[in-house]
Amino acid sequence: MLMFILRRLMQTIPVVIGVTFVVFFIMQLVPGDPAVLLAGEGASKETIGAIREQLGLNRPLFVQYFDYLINIFRGDFGVSLKNSQPVLDEVLVRLPITMELAFFSILITIVLGMAAGIISAIKPYSLTDTSVMIVALLGISLPSFWFGLMMMYFFSVKLQILPVAGWDSILHVILPALTLGAGGAAIVARMTRSSMLEVIRQDYIRTARAKGLRERVIVFKHALRNALIPVITVVGLQFGALLGGTVLVESIFAINGLGRMIVDSIRMRDLPMVQGGVLVASLVFVIVNLLVDVLYRFFNKRIELN
């Protein structure tokens, strides 16, 4: 297990390099000049040129990229063009908020999704099964930003039982977490149902029923454990989707997390801040994928870790 974890950690190095390469060169396509934004619209060409010289923007792109890459492996993510603060410090301030939002969202995804999938699998092709799958299909189809706005309008504006925006108490968590977790719960529900139906038809489940075991024991101890492998895969992928979804949700609910920071930095063409935010989010996703692989082994000892 230790060697497997070390190999996977080594594999993150080319992933990090790939992420930095893509983000760096995509940001070059964004309209606008950071030097002009910093100097102001009325600044002279000499002032803009001096800022470009100071920031190193007049050098070839590949030279800028390799300097940035070397600095990353030294632990230097650069300095924000907007407020002249170290990028890593700004990211580490916002990251816990985004991780907290992602945690509650994935919790909703797992609890609601697996509960709905198990109920559907226990009573396949019944009215309950059909109803749950229709709701799951709606959850997959509805855009998260629209769903968030509708919940904000209903629970905050009409009923006035939940706060509209912010991140000050547990009440502020409910609407953003539901907005992010609803779509993932729908996907997990469909996967759980499919996997459970496949496992329930196996011979060892029939044998367990023939021995007179309680249905609850058969479902949760025998069937669910063996049906969890594909579900774990989906949950791991959904966590990556949640990190991407925070960009919209944090903007909608005015949450000062990593996603909103990236959006604001793109508007300001703050390249170091965008690159730092995306890179840290990518590293978190890689770590989550590593944990998913370890969970495979935990739930199924027959799986070999390569």
From TrEMBL:
Main location: membrane
InterPro entries per the UniProt record, alphabetical: BPD_transp_1_N, MetI-like, MetI-like_sf, Opp2B
Pfam families: BPD_transp_1, BPD_transp_1_N
Spans traversing the lipid bilayer: 12-30, 101-122, 134-157, 169-189, 227-253, 273-296
Record carries keyword Signal: no
Residue ranges occupied by any ABC transmembrane type-1 domain in the UniProt entry: 95-296
Membrane topology: Multi-pass membrane protein
Keywords in alphabetical order: Cell membrane, Ion transport, Membrane, Nickel, Nickel transport, Transmembrane, Transmembrane helix, Transport
Subcellular location, record wording: Cell membrane
NCBIfam families with a match to the protein in the record: Opp2B
Protein family: Belongs to the binding-protein-dependent transport system permease family. OppBC subfamily.
Oligomer and partners: The complex is composed of two ATP-binding proteins (NikD and NikE), two transmembrane proteins (NikB and NikC) and a solute-binding protein (NikA).
Protein name: Nickel import system permease protein NikB
Organism name: Bacillus salipaludis
Gene: nikB
